[in-house]
Amino acid sequence: MLQLSVDWLVYIFLGFSGSSRLAGVIDFFIYDSIKILLLLFAMISVIGFLRTFLPQRKIKAWLGKSGGGGNLFAALFGAATPFCSCSSIPIFLSFIKAGIPLGIAFSFLVASPLINEYLVVLMLGFFGWKITLAYVISGVIIAVVSGSILGRMNLERHLVEDMVAPDTDEFINGKKYQNFIDRVIFGISEAVSIVKKIWVWILVGVGIGALIHNYIPQEAVQGIAGKAGIFSVPVATLIGIPMYGSCAAILPIAVVLFQKGFPLGTALAFMMAVSALSLPEAVMLRRAMKLNLIAIFFGITALAIILTGYLFNILQRILV
Fold this sequence. Notes:
Blueprint: H1 2-13, H2 21-51, H3 56-66, H4 68-79, H5 85-97, H6 102-114, H7 117-127, H8 129-152, H9 180-215, H10 218-226, H11 232-240, H12 247-259, H13 264-276, H14 279-285, H15 291-314, H16 316-319
C-alpha cells in the first residue's frame, strides 16, 4: 500500500516518466525514508515497552552467560527478519539502548540483511539448494564470528554517550510502571527520543542510497571486477560496500556476474558486501557510534566476507 501510494505521488501526481532516473531517486527516497522511520518508531516503542518488565541487569546477565550462544541467537533472529542493512538499524539501536552487549547486537546487524526467507526462495530458484544452504550457513557464521570478535574488543567506549543505556536498574524499574498505559507511554517516549536524535542521519543515508541505487550501472561493476583476476573477491567486496540495496535486489546482479564467468565466491561476496555494509548504513550508524567503531565494524565484516568469497571459489566445483 505504501509503495503504491508513493508511486502514485511520483508518477501520476508529480507527472514523472517511468524511465526517469530522477523519478527513481525520488520514489526510492520517499518510500525508504517513511518505511525506515516508521519501523524505527514501532520497534523502539515495542522494545521499550517490553523493557519495563525486565530490568536491564537481568538482560545483560542472561546474554552474558550465554557466551557465543548469544551471538548465535542474535544471528538467527537477524536471519528471520526480512530487512535491509538500513532497516535493521532500528532494532540494533534498541538492543544497544536495552543494554544488550555490543558484540551480540552486531551479530544481529550483520545477519539481518544477509539472510532472510525471501532471499532463500530466490536463491533456490537461481542457484539451487547446495549454494543456497552454503550461503545461509556462511552468513550465520560471518555474523557470529564478526560479533564475537567485536564483543571481545571492549568497544563500548566508542558509542555515542547518549545512546548507551545507564548501568542501573533505576532507569527501568518494574515498581515505577504499575499499569499498561504507563509502560506504553514509556515505549513511545523512548521511540520519540531516539527518532529525534537520528532522523536527519536516516534521511541523508537514504538519499545517498537512492542516488547510488539509480545512477551506478551494472556494467561498471562487471567491468571493474572482471579485470581484477585473483583479487576479484576483495575488489568486488570493496565495490559493493559503497552501494545500497537488499540481498533480493542485488541477487539478479550476482546471478548475471556468475553467468558471465565470474567465480561464484566473487559474485556472492559482492552481494554480501552490498547487503551487509553500505555507505548509507555508515551514515546512519554515525549518530550512534564514533567513526573508529564504524571503521572497525566494517573492516572485520568485510574481511569475513572476503574470506568467505575465496572459500566459495575453492568449493565452486562441489557446489555447482
